[in-house]
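Hi everyone, sorry if this is the wrong subforum. Our group has a chain we'd like a structural model of before ordering constructs, and none of us has done structure prediction before. Sequence below.
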Amino acid sequence: MNHPDVSVLTTDPTTDNADSTDSADNADSADNAGTAAGSGDSGSGPADRSHPAYQGPSIPKDHHRDVNGGWLRPAVFGVTDGLVSNFSLIAGMAGGGAAHKTIVLTGLAGLVAGACSMAAGEFISVASQTEVTQAEIEMERLELARRPAAEMKELAEFLTQRGLDPDLALEAARQIHRDPDQALIVHVQEELGVDPTDLPSPVVAAVSSFGSFAIGAVLPLLPYLLGMSSLWVAMLLAFGGLFACGAIVSRVSSRSWWFSGLRQLLFGAAAAVVTFGLGALIGGHVG
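Answer:
Right subforum, don't worry. Here is the predicted structure as tokens:
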């Protein structure tokens, strides 16, 4: 797939054969270079496992966190949104002098409506993004089938930009293109910046968003469900939940727990102050 921001050799049907001939000549040169470098069989045979690079302990394949699963962002966003929006809603109603029953009904309505809205929004947005990505992947698959020589040279250019010598880059591209599926994965990663085997799931995003929003929204409503009528108790639960949410997120990020917790708390407090003020200002003039 050719993109305007990448230096790519363009071809047409009359020059594809020339590309193939050039690629074969360059690949032969890369084979000779590989032999001189000690690959033994121009890199086309099995790797030499006696090489020092293969000795010693190996790095586990799962030593990084999963950052592409599609659950962390909607989960964190859902809890935060549930806490902030529902407590702000309750604070506005309390500021306006609403009755206990009205506050409970408002909080429950906000919980259900918000959770459904979050789940629908996450599902549609992630599904749309995944569909666009899959369409681009299919386009790349067709390009690899129609113009393999040009795509091989394009991959060699990417590898050269990453520091490989041109001959070695062309040989590496040739070996990758032996397996069409692997070639597709590498091209998509280089050109689109995504892993076609690990696209985010719309269902995971929707379920994570729904559940996390409901958990966040129920915290400030809990005192009213238990028969209390004190906004202070709801505020303590909401602010405590916001701080805890931020602190937990810091466990999978580079931020300190207190910074992340305070950041969540301040944003939630600001929203609650605004809605409480509006409720107090407008509540006495309504109904």
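For your construct planning: Residues 2-45 have pLDDT under 50 and may be disordered. The first helix runs from residue 16 to 36.
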